[in-house]
């Protein structure tokens, strides 16, 4: 089973430009209630981010501008994808290790989260992550 699950957002724009609406609900693109939204920008060249998993949190990452490379790892499989479209989101399930690399100079990465920030939900050590997913 692939770790890469894309969420396609409908483009509603016209000759004036693009417009994407993010809606939640059973028949909408986002399959969870959004409780937190944040974005990453101005990441310095050569800097990688992430290096953690979440015990319960689900996320959708959308690259609004530029691009970055995402690595997903569930303890058995490791996959890499490029995020480079404002109309495609990458669904990141709970207990998936994530790393973000190779940010372009103009990269803006938006993240929609299913829960509010909770430090206790983070698994920041890869060995601990591997121990948890092998149980």
From TrEMBL:
GO function terms (MF aspect): isomerase activity
Family annotation (InterPro entries): QdtA_cupin_dom, RmlC-like_jellyroll, RmlC_Cupin_sf
Protein's UniProt keywords contain Isomerase: yes
Chain ranges of the Sugar 3,4-ketoisomerase QdtA cupin domain: 4-133
Keywords: Isomerase
Domain of life per record: Bacteria
Key word Transmembrane helix present: no
Full protein name: dTDP-6-deoxy-3,4-keto-hexulose isomerase
Lineage summary: Bacteria, Pseudomonadati, Pseudomonadota, Gammaproteobacteria, Alteromonadales
């Amino acid at each position: 089973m692939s770790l890469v699950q894309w969420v396609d957002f409908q483009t509603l724009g016209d000759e004036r430009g693009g417009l994407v609406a993010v809606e939640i609900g059973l028949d909408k693109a986002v399959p969870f209630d959004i409780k937190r939204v944040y974005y990453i920008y101005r990441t310095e060249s050569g800097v990688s981010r992430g290096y953690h998993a979440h015990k319960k949190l689900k996320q959708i990452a959308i690259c609004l501008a530029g691009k970055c490379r995402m690595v997903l790892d569930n303890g058995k499989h490791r996959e890499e994808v490029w995020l480079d479209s404002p109309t495609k989101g990458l669904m990141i399930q709970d207990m998936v290790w994530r790393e973000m690399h190779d940010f372009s100079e103009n990269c803006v990465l938006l993240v929609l989260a299913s829960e509010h920030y909770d430090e206790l939900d983070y698994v920041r050590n890869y060995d601990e992550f591997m121990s948890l997913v092998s149980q």
